[in-house]
Fold this sequence. Notes:
By secondary structure, the protein is mainly alpha-helical.
Amino acid sequence: xxxxxxxxxxxxxxxxxxxxxxxxxxxxxxxxxxxxxxxxxxxxxxxxxxxxxxxxxxxxxxxxxxxxxxxxxxxxxxxxxxxxxxxxxxxxxxxxxxxxxxxxxxxxxxxxxxxxxxxxxxxxxxxxxxxx
Length: 132
C-alpha cells in the first residue's frame, strides 16, 4: 500500500551536544512513507492551452471536465483534512475546466445554439453527473 523511496526518507538534524551522560549522544531519524497513488495522480498536472483541446470530441471534453472536477473535489478534501497538497494544482485544474468549457461553447456557437439552450443542456448534464 505504501512505498518507501529514497526521496521519502529524511534524516533530521543530528543531536549532538557535550555529553554529560552516556545516553545524551544519539541520532534522530524520521522515516516517512508516502502514498504513490496520490502522488502519481497529481504529478502529471501541467498548465494547458486551449489548443490542446480543439481536436477532442464533445464526449471526451465532458469526460475530461468530470475528471478535473473530481480531482478538484479530492484536492478540497485533502485541504480540509490537512493532508499534503500543492495549492497551485487548484489553479491548474480550474483553468483547465474553463478552457474545456470555452472549447465546448465555441462549438455550440458554430452550430448555432443560443445561450438559453446551452444552459439547458448544461443543466441536463449536471443532473446526470454529480461532478458537473
